Amino acid sequence: MTHDAFADLADMLRRRSGLVLTQDKLALAKSRLAPVAHLFGFRGVAALLAEFPHPREEIAQAVTEAMTTNETSFFRDRDPFNHFRDILLPALTIARAGRRRLRIWCAAVSTGQEAYSLAMILDEASLAAFDWRIDLIATDLSAGAIARAKDGVYSQFEVQRGLPIQSLLKHFTQEGDQWRVSDRLRRMVSFRTFNLLDDFGWLGEIDVVLCRNVLLYFDAQSKAAVFAKLAEILAPDGTLVLGATESAESFAVAADAPRGYFIRPRGVAPRALSG
Amino acid sequence: MKHCLVVDDSRVIRKVACRILESLQFATEEAEDGAAALDACRSKMPDVILLDWQMPHMTGIEFLRTLRRQNQGTNPVVVFCTTENDVGHITEALNAGANEYIMKPFDRETLEAKLMQVGLL
């Protein structure tokens, strides 16, 4: 891969997704783009990148999706989910008791495990039985990942990463060596493809946003823009959940919560929303 | 240091499991079937048992039922680790007192995740 080709690839990724691609990711880029090159009939990655800096839209989309990280698992890192179940959700059910509505957004849900983990917690909290309306919105840049998430079928390895066996029996059915999420859980989640660089207006006001382990791959300008948009849609008493190692300078660290939990700084109100 | 008893009639599986467990700071002990595992428990009760299902002399489920009957409690933690991967076997194991269930084949991440779930990591 020539220096120019790599620079063109990095530039396209940053513009389309906010992702930063540094020279130390050269080997990673080659390995991830080889299947894309094959898919579109190129003789190799070099031939694929010869299409740059102005590749066809479907090539640009496939390359962007191939370069995104889809690492995820059920109840990943455990503590953020335990805190959501034991502290945040009970607090929200008190705070929202009047309107009985909760709006939660998984902003980079990958293949769906994070959203289904929340759905399991919400289902077991039985809020629907008390006429609560729960909007659980789950988005990802990758159309392929969202298609898998909607399908809700996971391998044996995937269901064993973080999912307690009792939850597997309760919420999944076995199909050979695969496991399918129950229709009940699938109906709880609205999946759609969405680019975090786009406008957030359609989301409306959100009580809890999970945007874990994605913005750390963004360039500073894109990251700041996303945080600004998150501040607009987050409810005044809303919660932003990032990865444990991530920080959000425009938000305040939530007290008595796992690392990665943030709240709106005191005195900063959300702007009027269009959604 | 937590103590794990690995019960499996495959020497290779026992070695692989022990290597992973030791890297997770567990002290390990091996038993090749349920009867040997009961002897090991009488000698020193482990914190956790990683238990295969199909074994000669005494199967995993027979061992578990005996262990729970003799001990009259929920200790030690028992994690099945078996190729019996259907819902019927999983349900039977949980009803007999298993705390978790690993479907073979497994890897380090799977074992680590399950040990976290049962509070041992």
Mean pLDDT level of chain B: 95
Distance between the termini of chain B: 11 Å
In the sheet with the most strands of chain B, the strands line up as 2-1-3-4-5
Radius of gyration of chain A (CA) equals 20 Å
Low-confidence stretches of chain A: none
Strand content of chain A: 15-25%
Number of helices of chain B: 5
- Quaternary structure of the protein: heterodimer
Structural class of chain A: alpha/beta
Count the beta strands of chain B.
5
CATH architecture of the largest domain in chain A: 3-Layer(aba) Sandwich
Number of helices of chain A: 11
* Helical proportion of chain A, percent range: 40-55%
| Radius of gyration based on Cα positions of chain B | 13 Å
Descriptive notes:
The complex is a heterodimer of chains A (275) and B (121). By secondary structure, chain A is of the alpha/beta class. Chain A has two domains: 65 residues, Chemotaxis Receptor Methyltransferase Cher, domain 1, CATH 1.10.155; 185 residues, Rossmann fold. Chain A has eleven helices and ten strands. In chain A, helix 6 links the parallel strand 1 and strand 2. Chain A is globular, with a radius of gyration of 20 Å. The model of chain A has no long low-confidence stretch (mean pLDDT 92). Chain B is of the alpha/beta class. Chain B has a single domain, classed as Rossmann fold. Chain B has a five-stranded parallel sheet, sandwiched between helices. Chain B starts with a strand and ends with a helix. The mean pLDDT of chain B is 95. Classes of the chains: A alpha/beta (275), B alpha/beta (121).
